[in-house]
Amino acid sequence: MIKMLENHELDMVIRKFDENTSFQKFSVKVFSEITHCFFCNKKFKDLIKKDKVSLEELANYPLLLLNQNSYERIALDNDFKKRNIKLEPIMDFTYHAPIVFLVKAGYGIGYTLKESIQNELDSGELFQLPVSEISSMHNLGIIYNPKYLSIAASKLLEYIE
Length: 161
Hints:
Blueprint: H1 2-6, E1 12-17, E2 27-40, H2 45-48, H3 55-58, E3 63-66, H4 71-82, E4 91-93, H5 97-104, E5 109-113, H6 118-123, E6 127-128, E7 137-144, H7 151-160
């Protein structure tokens, strides 16, 4: 999509990125910070009670993750590679809903947007695991070239601001 933006085939791209990502040719408008987390149901009580869960330990559990082409998975793979740990989920998915469903049913530990499961975390149906070795905070923003914005894209940026 960034290549399409470079070729003026798109007005803007809305995507997730971390603070180290650079879009040199473009302007960036960050409009939200998002947090990812590992989560489970009460079946994994041994992990819930810990002050900290390491990636080495987590790798020994059944993990339900997004597919390898997703932004979240690429970031997660990098976090595991930094520690020389092979990340091997039991299943991977193209979107979050089946991960949440299967974690609720006790099939494994998931990784998703914390905001998307906040109600389940608040109710005690699901539990966030204290994993500190991951890059969990990311930005959601709009990447664009101000020289090539259509009227509609300009109005959308005004509305968001």
